Amino acid sequence: MAIAFKWDLAKGEDRDEAVRRLLREALEKGVVDAVLVPAEGPARTGIVNMFTTDPGSLDASAPFAKAMAQFGPQDLVRLTEPGGSPIRIAALLKPCECRAVAELAKINQIDLEHVVLLSPDCEGTVELKEYSMVADGQAVPVRNACKICRFHVARDPVDVAIGTFGVKDGLMLVTNSDEGQAFAEGIGAKATELTDARKKAVEEAIVKGEEAYGDQEARSREKYADLDTFLAELSPCIKCMNCQNVCPVCYCKECLLYTDAFNPTAGSLADKAKRRGTLRMPVETVQFHLTRMAHVMTACVMCGQCQSACPSDIPLVEMYAGINRRIQDQFDYEAGRSMEEEPPFTCFSEHENFEVVGD
Amino acid sequence: MPGLRKVDRLKKLLLILPCDEEMEGLLDPESLAEEMNDPENWVFARSDPRLCGPDRSDYIADLVKETEAQAIIVGGPSDRTHGSVWRQEASLVGIPPDRVELVPLVQQCIYVTDEKDAARRRAKIMIESALARVDTGIDRAVERVKAMQAVLVIGGGVAGMQAAWDLADFGRQVYLVERTGELGGRAHQLSRTYPTQDCKPDGCCPQSCRDCQFTPRIDLVTSHPLIELLLESEVRSVKGGIGGYQIEVHSPETSRLLEVGAIVVATGNVMFDAGEMGELSPWHPDVISFLELEKLIDWQRKEDRAWEPLRRPSDGKVPKNIHFLQCVGSRDEHHGTIECSLVCCTYAVGQAKDLKDMLPDATVAIHYMDMRGPYRGFERHYLEAQESGVLFMRGRVVEIEPDNGNLMLSYEDIDIGEPVTMEADLVVLSVGQLPTPGTAELAQMLGVPLDDDGYIGEDNTTYSLWDRRGVYVVGCAAGPRGIRYSVRDGREAALSIDAVLRRTQIELADNIAEVDDERCVGCGQCVESCEYGAVTLEERTDLQTGRKYRVAIVDPRRCWGCGNCHATCPSTAIRLSGFSDDQLVRQVELASGGHR
Amino acid sequence: MADSSKGKEKKKTTDGATGGDAPKDWNPRIVGFLCNWCSYTGADLAGVSRLQYTPEFIPIRVMCSGSVDVAYILKAFLEGADGVLIGGCHLGDCHYLNGNYKARRRVAVVKEVMEGVGLDPRRLHLEWISASESGKFAKTVSTFDETLRQLGPNPLAKERLL
Ligand SMILES: Cc1cc2nc3c(=O)[nH]c(=O)nc-3n(C[C@H](O)[C@H](O)[C@H](O)COP(=O)(O)OP(=O)(O)OC[C@H]3O[C@@H](n4cnc5c(N)ncnc54)[C@H](O)[C@@H]3O)c2cc1C
Ligand code: SF4
Ligand code: SF4
Ligand code: SF4
Ligand code: SF4
Ligand code: SF4
Ligand code: FES
User: Fold this and answer.
1) Of A235, A312, B60, B410, whose CB neighbour count within 10 A is largest?
2) pLDDT, tens digit, 9 for 90 and up, residues B124-156
3) Shortest CA distance to A232 belongs to which of B418, C2, B458, B580?
4) Residue ranges in B377-482 assigned as alpha helix (H)
5) Ligand 7 — pocket residues by CB below 6 A?
6) Atom of ligand 5 nearest to the CA of B524
């Protein structure tokens, strides 16, 4: 059950600073050994993740950064790989990243045993390349994915949600696990009641998110009712595989699309060209996208990193919005919702998907 | 990594069988072979009546020599019906099974349409697909496992005893695990067995019928120096596979770890409990089952009062009106099993006749649907029963009601087509047979399938030398059967096991999943999707960098070759030999028709 | 995208194909993934029983419906197949216990993906056909063929640069 803690602002502190202090406390009091947290890169033109054991260096961290660093969940894969030293890590990531972490933990890619997941309420992030404008104080619209995000507030597998929505002064640490509670107690946070204001604000964020997503889902379904739209939009894809590379849940060592079967040798290319008349080079661009959708939609957390990384501005988020929730709903599954839910391709229920057969 | 080497292009011998006139008329195999013949691309196509004639093997050997073929593609029969035949044929000329493809032109092409052109086009696609399969296949290094020579037999009924005895006779160490405290199983509980007289394991038989020679004897099995008896014991866990099983066996006192090369499952079956059929008043002391009847008779024998007539349980009266009810919990959609239990008719007829002999004045009747005696010797036995005065009444008794110290049967007589009631003072229920409780758990441990009716399926391949499981199900553990057949099962299993284990190395043929370490990220999704527990995750250390990583590994002895793991792994790090991406994608390309 | 059909009039079907677009001699091409233990045997039996169905149906033998990779299904469409049929054992009868349940999940996902990009999900058909159901096999192929005729050619078939 969720237990709330208070984390007040010290004099002259802003929320970022308050979280920095919280992390420092955690390191100094030995609650954790290391911290993974976003930070402003050199010249404040970007956001990267920093991994540190030094309380002093947390000054550069940007817990509420308005942009998302790349590869946060993947960093945890590396940091918790087998045989690593069992250091305790506090990882502060965006709610969507945390949901991807849960997905990766389910499939043995992240070992959460020594990790405390922290996640501040998220109002959305801008494209990385636009971060410098935000840093300069300009108003920049958030990314598409954030506009239709259903999860601005971190839920279950996250140990500690760092609440700002509906929290007037200071921060409210909402813990969802024993580890989270131990963390909050360890840093000396005071237990408090979950206020009605907080509950209401969270409710509202969810309702708004669902609405926004629902609208986009409907628009996407209409837009892609016709195959030509999809093909036309993929036309500028350069098959750089950036989308696959940055995607936290597209976790293969090497994508299927790089194997000989889908990335043929010279001889078979000639054969293929002969049979088909002509080939798009590099081959299998649409195959790649469709296969990727089929592979990752069950685990996709709609973080939008794929689209952000795309050099051709292909509206992947829009494409996925039409099917993401629908696919997961079919299996009563929600990516990142609970560690208890098994990844949909490894299990089944006898009483589902009847309409799929013979239809 | 063994087994991941890709086959270079192979010289392929394409044999299009001119199966019959119809085939010839519709497909013209000869001209098709001519058209497909493409020596430049190493396709050597032939169609010749000799392929369907008696000296086929010689002809093929000549062709293989002439063309130096490394693979054979057979156009005509289906893999399902002729796959193993042709793989055997190919093995004679040194071509391994995974380089043999069958194209079911007969079953799936020539009759499908009347349009000759379309059929021919289709035949060509199907043939090309098969040619591509061998060219893109993975040349699977044959897995070899060492064979431990000892054998475990689970269950000490007649089937298990026979298997144990024969295996020990072949010089093998045998562990015989029996759940109860004594050997003999069901047969040991029967006073008499039919249609032959006393083919029972305690072996004190006054008759001299031949079947006795076939029934294993408890005393002999017990004293065999190579048979170790583990009574009051049960199998707790099973690891490994053919050639090397590690079995944990528990008894109240100890726990043992046995290492064996093969396993005989001889756990028998149990009898249907009629308690659920309230309409037959099963609670009534005078409504008894076979085994209760046995006890009444047994009591009589043990006390050495063979002259003493049988008495009914309720009040010790000598029954005058004995009725047998067949198919209680057999051939029934609502109770027990819809299958026939096979031995009850034989047994009931025998018991009825014996009772009639014992009590000549009593009425002894058998209510049956139809007499089923799948046993040589049954008919004579049945006639004898009729001659001795046993009444046979066709119809299913639907109700038994206690009535004034006696029992009232209601049933529909099929022969006269009317409902009838009838009085009885002793009713014997011929209860059906069901799988032994715990069978599903045992099957799960052994990684063998269950049949629809809950018995362990008989799955061993036609050729025992291709066996990959090393698990043999014998006797009633594989479904009801008579003693003679249970014993024979045990004997057969012993012979097969001996043949399999005699080779000290076992080759695992067929389709097996393999992991490409380079591609596997150790996510474990394949582990979850394998129903046979054949895949596990293993932590390894990279010897050069010292880095630890996790990969999936497949125990080829437990893999059934279903390919579910492959479809679950997104990056195709695990794949099924014979069904690799290279093969399937190529097949899909050919089948899809390209672009228009 | 040179020969994209954008701008042509399209009706009803989701993927923009219409029966009317079909070239005269067009017959729907169907790729069939047939489980070795059931549908493939059912297909064998259908042939022996001389049941007829479209010769444009091309069988591919697989060990279990649960072994059909989503990538193969998608590949078939990208290679121009008008329909993909997957034949598996009836629920509860899978030779490997429950591969067909897993297949059903994969098919559900692929159908959603197809619909989400504008390829008519009816082009993918999953059916349980046992080894003895030769009639059902032939009928399934024929009915599917009919459906595909109504849907018209796979719109991906005319795209060359995919
Ligand atoms: C009422 C009745 C009448 C019959 N009459 C005749 C007849 O007249 N003629 C005829 O030919 N056949 C007859 N049969 C059939 C005959 O009894 C069987 O064919 C024969 O006994 C089967 O032998 P078995 O070794 O397969 O199994 P069983 O004799 O049942 O032996 C199985 C043994 O395995 C043991 N076991 C079970 N589970 C485990 C476990 N998990 N671990 C260890 N041990 C285990 C059991 O305790 C048992 O000892 C009759 C059967 C019945 C029920
Ligand atoms: S698209 Fe599929 S195969 Fe490729 S990396 Fe992603 S999950 Fe793996
Ligand atoms: S597919 Fe795109 S939106 Fe979905 S998890 Fe991957 S990167 Fe995020
Ligand atoms: S990142 Fe964009 S351009 Fe690169 S492969 Fe993905 S969709 Fe194509
Ligand atoms: S083989 Fe594939 S599914 Fe299995 S652990 Fe490796 S990557 Fe995962
Ligand atoms: S092929 Fe089937 S039995 Fe073999 S490892 Fe894979 S899932 Fe298990
Ligand atoms: S074996 Fe036929 S569907 Fe699994």
Assistant:
1) B60
2) 999 999 999 999 887 776 677 889 999 999 999
3) C2
4) 378-387, 439-446
5) C 35, 37-38, 64-66, 88-89, 94-96, 99-100
6) 5
Both tokens of A219, joined, read: 């628009």
Name the token pair of C35. 């489980």
**Residue of chain C with shortest Cα separation from B565:** C67
C8 in any annotated domain: no
> What pLDDT was estimated at residue B207?
40
On the question of pLDDT at B301 being above 70, the answer is no
Q: Do A261 and B585 touch (CB under 8 A)?
A: yes
Residue B158's pLDDT band, with cuts at 50, 70 and 90, is: very high
Q: What is the DSSP string of A18-34?
A: HHHHHHHHHHHTTS-SE
Strand partners, B227: B174
Could you give the residue ranges of the DSSP H alpha helices within chain A? 15-28, 72-79, 95-106, 131-135, 144-147, 178-186, 196-223, 227-234, 242-246, 266-276, 285-296, 305-308, 316-321, 324-330
Rounded CA-CA distance B231/A40 in Å is 73
Q: Is residue A248 part of a domain?
A: yes
3-state secondary structure of B530: coil
Question: Is B79 part of any domain?
Answer: yes
Give B192's DSSP letter: -
pLDDT at residue A232, as a whole number: 95
Domain range holding A319? Answer: 225-346
| SS3 state of residue C103 | helix
Confidence grade of residue A313 (pLDDT, cut at 50, 70, 90): very high
Are both B328 and B360 inside the same structural domain? yes
- Encoded tokens for A233: 């939009």
Question: Is C162 part of any domain?
Answer: no
Write down which residue in B114, B142, B170 finishes a domain: B142
State the Cα–Cα distance between residues B269 and B186, nearest whole angstrom. 9
As for how many domains chain A has, the answer is 2
CB crowding A233-246: b at 16 or more within 10 Å, else e: bbeebebebbbbeb
For residue B222, the SS3 value is helix
Same structural domain for residues A122 and A257?
A: no
Last residue in a domain, options B471, B506, B541: B506
Residues 6+ apart with CB under 8 A from B229: B156, B176, B178, B183, B221, B222
A248 C-alpha to center of ligand 5: Å?
Answer: 17
Distance CA B303, CA A96 (A): 82
| Neighbouring-strand partners of residue B537 | B552
Contact call for B562 and C62, based on CB within 8 A: no
Kindly state whether residue B487 falls inside one of the protein's structural domains.
yes
What is the tens place of the pLDDT at every residue in B387-440?
999 999 998 898 999 988 899 999 887 777 788 889 999 999 999 999 999 999
B370 and B394 in contact (C-beta within 8 Å)?
Answer: yes
CATH number (domain holding residue B127): 3.40.50
B456 secondary structure, DSSP code:
B
Residue at A58 is within a domain: yes
Q: What is the DSSP pairing of strand B513-515 with strand B269-271?
A: unpaired
Total residue length of chain B: 596
Domain boundary among A211, A241, A257: A211
What value of ipTM does the predicted structure carry? Answer: 0.93
Q: What is the bridge-based pairing of β-strands A34-40 and A190-192? A: unpaired
In whole numbers, what is the pLDDT of chain B averaged over residues?
A: 87
Q: Are A321 and A146 in contact, with CB atoms under 8 Å apart?
A: no
pLDDT tens-place string over residues A74-112:
999 999 998 877 899 999 999 999 999 999 999 999 999
Helix, strand, or coil (residue B564): helix
- Unique residue bearing structure tokens 């260096």: A57
Q: What share of chain A is helix, strand, coil (3-state, %, to 5)?
A: 45, 10, 45
Question: For B283-347, where are the E strands, in sequence order?
Answer: 287-289, 321-328
- Out of A251, A276, A277, the one facing B523 most closely (by C-beta) is A251
Ligand nearest to the CA of A310: 4
Which phi and psi angles does C86 have, rounded to 5°?
A: -115, 125
Per-chain mean pLDDT for chain A: 93
Residues A97 and A232 occupy one common structural domain: no
- Per the structure, the count of domains in chain B is 4
